[in-house]
Amino acid sequence: MITKYTYKLQGNGKDSWHVDVHDCQTEEEATIENRISREIVFEDPNINSDTNMNNLDFTKLTLEQIQQLKNILGIN
After folding, report:
1. Nearest 10 degrees: CA dihedral of 6, 10, 45, 30?
2. pTM (2 decimals)?
3. CA nearest to 17, candidates 35, 36, 43
4. 54: number of CA atoms within 13 Å, CB side?
5. Residue 55 pLDDT
6. Where is mean pLDDT largest: 34-38, 46-50, 54-58?
């Protein structure tokens, strides 16, 4: 079994992803015919949302990463 994630921009401007499960061994073999299920999700499935904050070392961030963090937090 293989799971494929395909990005799709919705008509309302929202991000979404098709999550397709296929009965095959490689992504190249995945077709509509061997697709078992399809789900649409609105959070990027490639990002692990269960980040353990204990593993983050903010002292090793690059200047670009610090700027990205400031942008996310709304700090400029």
Report:
1. -20
2. 0.59
3. 43
4. 0
5. 76
6. 34-38
